[in-house]
């Protein structure tokens, strides 16, 4: 990856950019609905693949509002815990995969001298097991899951923190698959690369 900028570092998104999240999230969301039915006695329907895809890349608070708040008002912490358990269970069962070529991409960019950072609208309890299970954790200088910072509301704030905490970098390029990734980069005056294999697609990234 040869970048036309003085950037010394690349900030990668996780879901939909490196990690093919649907291979984990679709079965995990089925487990969540099963738990709600059995533990709360609420007859929720399963989410479609398209609905699950629409949740990916959003913060937990956003997913809560989009998917669960109307069914289980007041049960936000229960859903948070249930989601973490479902994702952990599916990951340990072998669900989840990287997109083709990602290990080689991370290796090549590291060899070319870029320091790699990981920034995502997910929790630390999700990010760390995923990157360890996928054997890519060693590529990253630092990781930044937004769930580590409860005062943050969006990815723009997360990128601002990365910039502030790493003043030795001569510049950053961001890589992501959703409009929110590109917008966050623009708000921090960073260059960005949008990938088309994730959940945003060309229409979203060009809007």
TrEMBL record:
Gene3D superfamilies with a match to the protein in the record: HAD superfamily/HAD-like, Putative phosphatase, domain 2
GO cellular component: cytosol
GO biological process, one term: DNA repair
UniProt GO molecular function: phosphoglycolate phosphatase activity
InterPro entries noted in UniProt: HAD-like_hydrolase_sf, HAD-like_sf, HAD_2, HAD_sf, PGP-like_dom2
Name the UniProt record assigns to this protein: HAD family hydrolase
Source species of the chain: marine sediment metagenome
High-level lineage: unclassified sequences, metagenomes, ecological metagenomes
């Amino acid at each position: 990856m040869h970048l036309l900028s003085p950037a010394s570092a690349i900030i990668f998104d996780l879901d939909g950019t490196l990690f093919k999240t649907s291979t984990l999230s679709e079965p995990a969301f089925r487990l969540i609905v099963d738990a709600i039915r059995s533990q709360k006695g609420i007859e929720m329907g399963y989410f479609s693949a398209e609905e699950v895809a629409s949740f990916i890349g959003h913060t937990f608070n956003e997913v809560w509002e989009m998917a669960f708040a109307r069914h289980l008002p007041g049960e936000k912490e229960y859903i948070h815990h249930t989601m973490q358990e479902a994702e952990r269970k599916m990951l340990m069962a072998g669900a989840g995969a990287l997109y083709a070529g990602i290990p080689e991409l991370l290796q090549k960019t590291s060899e070319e001298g870029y320091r790699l950072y990981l920034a995502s609208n997910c929790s630390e309890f999700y990010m760390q097991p995923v990157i360890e299970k996928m054997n890519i954790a060693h590529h990253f200088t630092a990781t930044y899951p937004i769930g580590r910072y409860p005062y943050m509301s969006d990815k723009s704030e997360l990128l601002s923190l990365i910039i502030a905490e790493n003043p030795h970098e001569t510049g950053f390029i961001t890589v992501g698959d959703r409009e929110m990734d590109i917008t966050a980069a623009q708000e921090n005056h960073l260059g960005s690369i949008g990938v088309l294999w994730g959940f945003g697609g060309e229409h979203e990234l060009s809007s």
